[in-house]
What we know:
Elements: H1 2-13, E1 31-37, H2 41-54, E2 59-62, E3 78-79, H3 86-106, E4 117-121, H4 124-139, E5 145-147, H5 149-155, E6 171-175, E7 179-180, H6 183-196, E8 200-202, E9 207-213, E10 216-222, E11 225-234, H7 240-245, E12 254-263, E13 273-276, E14 281-285, E15 291-294, H8 309-322, E16 331-341, E17 348-351, E18 357-361, H9 371-384, H10 398-401, H11 408-411
Parallel strand pairs: 1-2, 1-11, 2-8, 4-13, 11-18
Antiparallel strand pairs: 3-7, 4-6, 5-6, 9-10, 10-11, 12-15, 12-16, 13-14, 14-15, 17-18
Amino acid sequence: MRYSLFSLVRQGLNDHQQWPRAWRDPQPKPAYDVVIVGGGGHGLATAYYLAKEHGVTNVAVLEKGSLGGGNTGRNTTVVRSNYLRDDSARLYEHSLKIWEGLSKELNFNLMFSQRGMIALAHTRHEMHEMQRRLAALRLNGVDSEMLTPAELRRWVPILNPRPKPRYELLGGMVQRRAGTARHDAVAWGFARAADARGVDIIQNCEVTGIRREGGRAVGVETTRGYIAAAKIAVVVAGHASVVMAMAGLRLPIQSYPLQALVSEPVKPILDTVVMSGLIHVYVSQSDKGELVVGAARDGYVSYAQRGSFPVIEDQVAALIELFPIFSRLRFLRQWAGIVDVSPDLSPIIGRTPVENLFVNCGWGTGGFKATPGSGHVFAHTIAGGEPHPLAAPFGLDRFTTGRLIDEGAAAGVAH
């Protein structure tokens, strides 16, 4: 025991200098078969599945900062697949099924916890909408079930105990297979697994331009020099429109701040995710004991990452209405991520009008839960040049054909 304690102290004092690298830190090569712009969860997952499923290993992932430093590290880590539209439900369910075996596949503990997610209903309209969604989910083979007020209180006994609370609980809906995962671990797990298959992960390498020859994309200008590429895939949540503008393309998306905050740690008190779409708040408890609280995105277009006090005030007021027991907690920190939102609140995955240029964006607040599924179908699309069947409905062409995937009704508090 004494030796183990001294070993821990010694490792802490030597600033981890003797720890092996989890992945290489290579210099950029002059050219690659595929260059992926964006070193978040989706970009790293895409690189991993390109190598694993399609044998494409001459791949570079370019990240302007550190891996997972964007939206991957700025979210509330909820994983679910209970979406209303058929196309959405199939894509997110595909991702959830991958989540269920991903720690084993990557040989890395992602701290994936299927603690369930409960959506509360405060009005008859919400109850009707939940019953409609439940029927649609069952037709798509996605698990979900209704809860009575008594079942809700047995599951979450700390809900407002007053006989007549401001927001009456008429019932709810639960997806038992939903839950949370550790966002940093997801980025690290995919990075290590992709690196082991030969992918070059290049941090502190910002893309400053996309070079075109005629109607083809042929490479990227970066702060570390020009890199040629047979194919370029842009996966930069929050800044997709900025990067795609470098290739002369204008995307039908807008970017907004999405805020979250965490409390001081407390003993285990909430063993599921609870969401209220009506009053715009959702909450879970992290493994460290912190309450992780989120709400709707801000109502203004911005690239700011600090959010605004009115949104914080509203979500804390809603939280305390649902859980008066939390009223004496102190909040430790607050942040905002930048989310790309498309007109139909669904992602854009696939080819672009520029040959050899692919894009994966527009996930709004649903990006983290889709990480492995997004990478899997996007890798298929890049490798073969044709969309994966699950990704086909989410192409850019839907904005000209009019076949939109209007997911606003199912996204609830997310949008």
